[in-house]
Specification:
The chain is an alpha+beta fold and 230 residues long. It has 8 helices and 8 strands. Strands 2-1-3-4 form a 4-stranded antiparallel sheet. A 4-stranded antiparallel sheet has the order 6-5-7-8.
């Protein structure tokens, strides 16, 4: 009996050390930012840790190997997520626009798998109580809601101060992972020629050298080129 208890304690310590090592290998992630995939990986590794702690000797090695393989697959997935916009879209999906200019886009609710009551709750959490006050509301991949209020509804608003202010507009992502996004570039009111000229004025040879670029409401370009190691 005592030997069995000692064996269980030692296995539990081993399970803890295995999880600690694999957790350090996978890196840190904010709890609020984990995806469903990350959650499932965590649950799977947790169940494997229990098997390590309570399983018989014959299952110890195979369980540890299984945990290592799953961790390696998670690391590969994270790497592909960073390198490939297509893979990132498949794994995480895309943000969904739910409100535009104070109007609900009901056709997008099914895509986001969210109810109107859940949307209203998320708005209240951001101290927004009127849908008409919202310029844009975007349901993000991690389940959070991003809200951009209309100019006159912003704190110390232009409406209160009787100051005319142009309408807010989201920045348009025009280059992601070295590739131009024609739809967004057109929506920003600019052409590919203008974009290339702007890049050249910053000493950037072409879009393939840019990690991310966007055009804000004022028409200004923000460009972040790849690091020198790229």
């Amino acid at each position: 009996m005592i030997q069995k208890l000692i064996a269980t304690v030692l296995r539990s310590i081993l399970a803890y050390l295995v999880l600690l090592a694999l957790g350090r290998l996978m890196g840190r992630k904010m709890i609020s930012r984990i995806t469903v995939f990350d959650f499932l990986i965590g649950v799977t590794l947790g169940s494997l840790a229990v098997r390590i702690a309570l399983g018989d000797e014959n299952s110890l090695l195979t369980t540890v190997i299984s945990a290592v393989v799953i961790t390696c697959m998670a690391l590969i997935t994270d790497r592909l997520n960073i390198k490939s916009s297509l893979f990132r879209k498949i794994e995480e999906g895309e943000p969904v626009l739910l409100i535009r200019n104070g109007k609900l886009l009901d056709e997008n609710f099914a895509k986001a798998k969210i109810s109107i009551s859940k949307l209203l709750m998320l708005l209240r959490q951001k101290d927004v109580f009127e849908i008409e006050d919202v310029n844009y509301a975007i349901f993000e991949n991690d389940g959070n809601l991003t809200v951009l209020l209309k100019p006159e509804k912003l704190p110390v608003s232009a409406g209160d101060l009787k100051i005319a202010k142009p309408a807010n507009r989201l920045s348009a992502d025009v280059i992601v992972d070295g590739k131009i996004i024609p739809k967004n570039l057109k929506a920003s009111g600019h052409t590919e020629g203008w974009l290339l000229q702007q890049l050249q004025s910053r000493g950037i040879g072409g879009p393939e050298q840019v990690f991310y670029a966007s055009v804000n409401a004022a028409g200004r370009l923000f460009a972040a080129p790849y690091g020198k190691s790229k």
